[in-house]
Amino acid sequence: MGVGITEFLWKNELAAEHPQVIPISVFIAILCLCLVIGHLLEENRWVNESITAILVGAVSGTVILLISKGKSSHILVFDEELFFIYLLPPIIFNAGFQVKKKKFFHNFLTIMSFGVIGVFISTVIISFGTWWLFPKLGFKGLSARDYLAIGTIFSSTDTVCTLQILHQDETPLLYSLVFGEGVVNDATSVVLFNAVQKIHFESLNGWTALQVFGNFLYLFSTSTILGIAVGLITAFVLKTLYFGRHSTTRELAIMVLMAYLSYMLAELFSLSGILTVFFCGVLMSHYASYNVTESSRITSRHVFAMMSFIAETFIFLYVGTDALDVTKWKTSSLSVGGTLGVSSVITAFVLLGRAAFVFPLSVLTNFMNRHTERNESITFKHQVIIWWAGLMRGAVSIALAFKQFTYSGVTLDPVNAAMVTNTTIVVLFTTLVFGFLTKPLVNYLLPHDASHNNTGNRGKRTEPGSPKEDATLPLLSFDESASTNFNRAKDSISLLMEQPVYTIHRYWRKFDDKYMRPIFGGPRRENQPEC
Amino acid sequence: MGVGITEFLWKNELAAEHPQVIPISVFIAILCLCLVIGHLLEENRWVNESITAILVGAVSGTVILLISKGKSSHILVFDEELFFIYLLPPIIFNAGFQVKKKKFFHNFLTIMSFGVIGVFISTVIISFGTWWLFPKLGFKGLSARDYLAIGTIFSSTDTVCTLQILHQDETPLLYSLVFGEGVVNDATSVVLFNAVQKIHFESLNGWTALQVFGNFLYLFSTSTILGIAVGLITAFVLKTLYFGRHSTTRELAIMVLMAYLSYMLAELFSLSGILTVFFCGVLMSHYASYNVTESSRITSRHVFAMMSFIAETFIFLYVGTDALDVTKWKTSSLSVGGTLGVSSVITAFVLLGRAAFVFPLSVLTNFMNRHTERNESITFKHQVIIWWAGLMRGAVSIALAFKQFTYSGVTLDPVNAAMVTNTTIVVLFTTLVFGFLTKPLVNYLLPHDASHNNTGNRGKRTEPGSPKEDATLPLLSFDESASTNFNRAKDSISLLMEQPVYTIHRYWRKFDDKYMRPIFGGPRRENQPEC
């Protein structure tokens, strides 16, 4: 639809006056189309939102390529700022806002070891692997910084696909690990990518690795603190002033604006906006969302989910159209065979790099939890699923690759163009092929879970709760009710007794109840035993 | 807060890398500040959101002026596209979405005569008045097109201020007239402004006025039809596919995207996006919002209100900072006295131009409704309030003035700079002085209404319903419940018997119930007598 209009208007005089109007219209029309197709394919659980968006993008790209007679497949020129300033923040904030905090913090150490140590291991393996094999394939011209960047680019995972298939209630540990790692991993990759940019390669010595790690720790901690601070300030302001008294609109506006401000402030101070906005989201859902009116609470949850959803679809749609960018293909220094070789090498090291930390770290986690007797250990089947869940590369990889190898989406350097096209191929291949295979794999490994899923509880990440429950559910799901907590506490008291994480968690809850909640808001847990 | 950070970072290296980050951060921080101050001043009903935003903007402008040592007062450079593509659509869409359709359509003819004929009369008076008096004040250099543009620029009103003080339940007719006119008037001004741009002054003859009018009618009708079409398509798609089955997020996304698409399509076809998006909003709230899940209905209403709120605050904030733009003041061809004279002339003709249609058209309306005996006639006091309500000039005036007299917010022409500064002065003066006086005036003319308002039912336009009711209210407020309707119908049956508008309305309702609602969605009115 949009494309037909575009063809007609490409030569329109308006194009000169409002250059943005045409691409925005076309892109929104395609986005709508994508939503409708995604909905119609909902029951077909082999494809998912990401795959739909990429395919629709590719088709649109083809149509535009034909209309423009082979000149361009793009509707919008890739804008790194568009991605990092407008599209990424809502996605990450929503992840923080919707995360089941209890699960997340129960498995905090495991998630962190996967999400942080894992990225380090994966980055090292991919960097060294590509540095070792690329020249042998005749692909030369990349600097040491480029190789390290490649390592971080291909260490960021896209777990949406797997999350859509896993069942949160049946395998809570697995679900929370995959979800948690997906979020932390994104943040770590971006932080590490930025840390790599700061290495001075001319004065490289033994300290460099330590410097990168120190830089990483500094970025990680300050970003987290900033996010927590903004989240707490928002909660405090909302609680003290109680905007809802006069206007629910203002409550919502302040939540959205403060969330965005946290990201921008982090960027201002050269920190990691992605981490800041994630923790800001966690804090907002933990405190701030209790200080607003009921309707604002429902609305905020849906608004953040919607913004995240649109941003994600937008990115995959872009990746789809970008796959057909002739200019980059022509500029690339590699032949078709060479491109295939390089992409295969990257994919192989992606597989290897992930295996190299998932299995050892799982074994380590199981060892740490050896005193617990219940199903809390990560079985080998679960390890395979965790490994598989992080094989898909997505929007963050693309964005980082564009940041490293292009200047505002354009590159004239053959080597850089080759890297961009290879990134696109790896993202397309992993999303499409690995994505398609996720369902059968999970079916095979967890037969029961999979069968449960056919009833259509998809898209967990953005909508926890079926539509019918939605009006009331958020009031419960933000934090489980007292009675549920009590039962859970009884159930898991024996299990958790010997875990150090649990002790920290218990002290945190005491502190939270006594000092934090009275100041920053949240439901009281008075008539509930301290578990 | 934001400003302190800015000072520190103005020279930061990041500024070069991400030029947008600093101004966006500062602007968002100031927006948040604005919200908080607006909330704190809530009980003080002499000031309103617009006045707060302008004053905060002016203070921020002063601070920035001092920091930059007199170079600039701007955080963001005015971008006509930013306004017309991103800020205006949510405001107008929200107006259409939240409008009480029943009231609006009951008084349709009166609202249309105020909003359309009124703008024509006002435009003619202001254009001729300024054309006659400007040269006498020594202000020369404006073309005929400029004078006509000035007429339309100063015919667009900003009724938010009055709406915040009027009480919808006590003076329903007055409220719906002020609100309805405010919306139609915005649209008419923009459409007329665009029609003026198309006049060929070199071949001016008797047909020109007719051509402008024809052009206006064409733009008005096609834009309306496009808006209705997009609204109906959205309703139909939502009803047929029932997205909520799988994902409430998708429902919301499709509503937001289609609303925006309607605006962009209108702009693409050189129509009036403002009218299109308004009617799209009306249709969406009349049909589409019944086809979504309950939580989406609540969410959509709040989301649109929030987006509109942020956009409005943003614009007034901008006007505030722009008032201190030294460059424009220096470029202006007018002395301080000359500027005062020109501004006074404009303000005088604004007063006159509005009086010239409010009183005659009110008398005409009363004459048409002479058979009805109840309080449905517009009393003289009400006429004064309607007149006063439209004296404030706001965001649309500023935007149109920038469009006419600057190129992306910058002008080097002394005459154009003078017009921009004069527009700013008129907007500031009318918003601040007339805005401040609205409360006492309404108090004086409608003593009972005013006293009612001190309980704090402000900001009607964006939040109908106090926070406590919010979670359930939307389900009722979209269309009154059957029993209410029945009582109302009984009450007003005698009143409406003799009005032609009523007959049209009755046929429309029959048609709506029989054909439209079954196809496009909406509650059934079966067990309810046809009033």
From TrEMBL, chains A, B:
PANTHER family in alphabetical order: SODIUM/HYDROGEN EXCHANGER, SODIUM_HYDROGEN EXCHANGER 4
Designated name of the protein: Sodium/hydrogen exchanger
Record membrane topology: Multi-pass membrane protein
Transmembrane region(s): 20-41, 53-70, 82-99, 111-134, 173-196, 216-238, 272-290, 302-320, 340-364, 385-405, 417-437
Residue intervals of the Cation/H+ exchanger transmembrane domain: 30-443
Catalytic reactions on record: Na(+)(in) + H(+)(out) = Na(+)(out) + H(+)(in); K(+)(in) + H(+)(out) = K(+)(out) + H(+)(in)
Protein's UniProt keywords contain Transport: yes
Phylogenetic placement of the source organism: Eukaryota, Viridiplantae, Streptophyta, Embryophyta, Tracheophyta
UniProt subcellular location: Membrane
Similarity remark: Belongs to the monovalent cation:proton antiporter 1 (CPA1) transporter (TC 2.A.36) family.
InterPro entries assigned: Cation/H_exchanger_CPA1 (IPR018422), Cation/H_exchanger_TM (IPR006153), Na+/solute_symporter_sf (IPR038770), NaH_exchanger (IPR004709)
Superkingdom per UniProt: Eukaryota
Keywords: Antiport, Ion transport, Membrane, Potassium, Potassium transport, Sodium, Sodium transport, Transmembrane, Transmembrane helix, Transport
